[in-house]
Amino acid sequence: MIELKGLKFLQTLQPKILFFTFGASLLPIFILSITAWRLMKQPLIELEKTRLDDQILAFKGYTAATEKGLKNLISSYTNWTDLYNAVQTDNRVWIDKEVSEQLLFSTDIDVVKVIHLPYEKIISEAGSKKILNLPIIQEKIKSLNNKNNFSQELIDTGSQGLVLLGISPIYQSDGTGKSSGNLIAGQLMDKGWLRQFLNYSQPTTRLEIVSLKGKLIVSSSSDWKPDIWEKAYFPSMIIPNIYQKRSVYRIQPELGLNTIYAPINSGNQPIAIVKLQIVAKYFQEAKQTLTYLILLGLSLAVFLSVLTANLLAQQISYPIIKLAKRSQTLAEGDLNSPIPNIKNGGEIGQLANAYQEMANSLKTLINNLEQRVAERTQELELARQNLEERVQERTIELSRKNQELEIKTEQLYTALNDLKMAQLQLIQTEKMSSLGQMVAGIAHEINNPINFIYANLTHVKNYTEDLFSLISRYQQCYPDPDIQTYAEKIELDYLIKDFPQIITSMDTGANRIQEIVLSLRNFSRHDEAEIKQVNIHEGIDSTLLLLQHRLNPDGDRPVIQIIKEYDNLPLIECYSRQLNQVFMHVLVNAIDALEFQQEQLNKKIIIQTKNILNSIIVRIIDNGIGIEDKNITKIFDPFFTTKSVGRGTGLGLSVSYQIIKRHQGNIKIVSQFNQKTEVIIELPYLLQKY
Which residue intervals define the domain Histidine kinase in the entry (predicted)? Predict the structure, then answer.
């Protein structure tokens, strides 16, 4: 691999020689080019500044010509007897046709205004209303209106651009008499005005007029935007020089553009800035000439480099490449072929002799190594066989112990789960057994006295009616003032009216207590056999009756609506008390979920039953807080709960799951978090006997 890399290096020796000689030839050319450019740069900059100054002088001459042309045009109309007489006689039609329209349509004038003195009455007004109505234009007209000779001023109107405004008094053709009024004319220095100047300037010139605040007034092109340099140096460099009536030069040979910023004056004060940009002509020509020289030098350097590289290759690289190829075959194991260039003199001949001696030494060394490698290989083969046997025996032993450990682990895990479930069932069975006995005893103890009360309420009602009838007859037969006074004191009329209502309320309360006692007996089923055919609806209704206090509204808690959608179900075999326990756990969880969902105002629990083939389906649906997806797989685990400490033990659904499985049924929970939870219970008609 080392010899191969060396051969590749030698094969690239000739291009490297070529590159070296090319670089050595190119260095003087670059030094001469840089020196020539530095010597030429400053004179070129001065030439470009002179070109920019010539363009600014041409622009100022064009501006002066515009001002003079406006003056001559206004003067030709103001020394006109017909216009003088029309102003005196207020002949507006003639002025509009012969003066205003002629100026607008046959010249570059944009606004015309004729005023009758001394009352400054406007006789004619034509052109751009936007310009005429500007406050700054009206103010300038007012200030120039009182002068007796021609006046003009360049105005920056802001939104409408630069306007050259001229005003002159109107006289007769011979110049005699008093002025009858003033003629005002204005020309907008817009894009068309700039393009007329560019027609006589260099074709590559770009012209812009910018306000003293840096905003564009008019541009000869439509793609204007201030560059980064102009934004940075406008307030700190350009504006101070403009106010001192000096130009600012920006020479950019790298972009091939030259720019000048010069003031536009109105009177003796700058009113705007002209930005003129031309192609860097001298820089471009110098750059092109220098490029030709560099290309010529490069061509000469390439020719000399190729010639030198070939001469050096014939003397150095070709013999070395032959020797390198032989060293490669030597590395591949060919120790018998002759070494080339061995009879040559010089350093290459000495190197070839050294290679020949190395080949002889390598041949002897390889023979010795082959013998030692064969001996060592035999020893390693024996050691490998012994190691494989030991590894195989150890692997078999570890595999057997691993299987035994897995079996014991599985047995322990199963035993632990069975122990937990047995403990859970034992605790719940004992609790529900004690609760059932207590509920049955309470129901029995309440039932006897309430039956006594309920049975005697009818007699109490009849006796009361008889007594009230007797009192009425006494009042009719023996009207005594003292008795009448006492009757009023105890409000006898109200007692006669209210007492039957009290008896009715007691009768209603007794009926209610009897219903609660019946529900307690149905819930506990303590007076029935362990396995019996029962009506599932009675168990659900009894559970709802016991939970009625949590369904009714209490303070800020709204009522929980119970919607029953019962199907026609047959009696089913079951452990009724255990099923009632399941319904109790599920309904309590539904009520808790509705209480946690504070945003839900329409709280409801839907209980659906359905008769299918050989089994029934009970669905209990609430629109409470729901169950998160991460908890849905753990809800039947013992002691798992999402309720706060003291509110839930985590045993209700686990016990319910075991009870449903004992009844050879299925229980499933489907939930959407913050929307609803649905508990689906499936039970067979008859329990299979095993």
Answer: 441-687
